[in-house]
Design goal:
The chain is α+β, with helices and mostly antiparallel strands. The chain folds into 2 domains: 2-35 and 145-215, RNA polymerase, RBP11-like subunit (Gyrase A, domain 2, 2-Layer Sandwich), CATH 3.30.1360; 39-138, DNA-directed RNA polymerase, insert domain (RNA Polymerase Alpha Subunit, Chain A, domain 2), CATH 2.170.120. Helix content is 22%, strand content 34%. It has 5 helices and 9 strands; from the N terminus they run ββαβαβββββααβα. It has helices spanning 22-34, 55-63, 165-169, 192-196, 223-245; strands spanning 2-8, 12-18, 38-49, 79-86, 92-95, 114-118, 123-133, 144-156, 202-217. The strands form 3 sheets. The protein has a 4-stranded antiparallel β-sheet with strand order 1-2-9-8. It has a 3-stranded antiparallel β-sheet with strand order 3-7-4, covered by helices on one side. The chain has a two-stranded antiparallel sheet with strand order 5-6. The longest helix is centred in the last third of the chain and has 23 residues, at 223-245. It is elongated and about 75 Å long. The structure holds iron/sulfur cluster (2 copies). One iron/sulfur cluster binds at residues 156, 160-166, 179, 196-197, 199, 201-202.
Length: 246
């Protein structure tokens, strides 16, 4: 197997994986989505809610607020959060960043997420406890997203006269003037280029063992860190299965 980082944008990453099966890449995708432990606010005590939203709506929104992750956190960790918001003189938006905690490591990651709008004189006071879980239990624990596609085999033959029709037809604008792919990971295998080639000089088809993986992290870990955690989760599952056979 060969893995190359095509793009590292911190919260997002694009990787190419060569010499693997579709099932393997799909297992990695599922591990990124479902097997990564994360904190989420799971228990809520509603102290005062004079907003237009039912307590259950508010609890659902608070639970989905992305929190930071700490690798050394105890699996039994419980982190207390408080929210004390009031629209004193005029209506206002309550943001996730108003959820406060004394914990130095676990805090709200996406502080700009709007939770609700309070009308003048309305108040929202609550306490919430964040726990560790994975998205297998509830989507609020999902801390990353991943998707993948097959990389293209792009072949032109001797009939090509460099007329440039395929260059113009490509919706992704990834065919160079020398009729080669500039960014294979952006190819959507639409075959517009093949149809535009009247000389039948071009073939595009998916490679069977080369894939592009897109990863996005929702917390303080980078997309590449989340991918490494997913490999560790897959290894732990494989080790547990191996033990069962002994
Ligand atoms: S359309 Fe066909 S002939 Fe024209 S440049 Fe592309 S591959 Fe070559
Ligand atoms: S298959 Fe579609 S996206 Fe890929 S190179 Fe051809 S036209 Fe562009």
């Amino acid at each position: 197997m060969q893995i190359d980082v095509l793009k590292d944008g911190g919260a997002t990453a694009v990787l190419s994986l060569k010499g693997v099966s579709p099932s393997f890449v799909n297992a990695l995708r599922r591990a990124i989505i479902s097997d990564l432990p994360a904190f989420a606010i799971d228990e809520i005590d509603m102290l005062e809610n004079t907003s237009p939203l039912f307590n259950e709506y508010v609890a659902g929104r608070v639970g989905l607020v992305p929190l930071t992750w700490e690798e050394n956190a105890s699996p039994d960790a419980r982190v207390l959060f408080s929210l004390n918001a009031e629209a004193v003189d005029a209506p206002r938006v309550v943001y996730a960043g108003e959820l406060t905690t004394d914990d130095p490591n676990i805090k709200v990651f996406a502080t700009h997420v709007p939770l609700m709008k309070l009308g003048k004189g309305q108040r929202l006071r609550l306490q919430g406890t964040a726990l560790i879980g994975t998205a297998k239990r509830h989507a609020k624990f999902q801390s990353a997203m991943a998707s993948f596609g097959q990389l293209p085999e792009f072949k032109k033959n001797a009939k090509c006269d460099k007329c440039g029709e395929c260059v113009k037809a490509c919706p992704q604008k990834i065919i160079s003037d020398s009729i080669a792919l500039t960014a294979p990971e952006k190819c959507i295998l639409c075959e517009e280029c093949v149809e535009a080639c009247e000389k039948e000089a071009l073939k595009v088809f998916p490679k069977e063992d080369e894939f592009v993986l897109f990863v996005e992290s929702y917390n303080n870990l980078s997309a590449l860190q989340q991918t490494k955690r997913a490999f560790e989760a897959m290894k732990a599952q494989a080790d547990a299965a191996e033990k069962e056979l002994k």
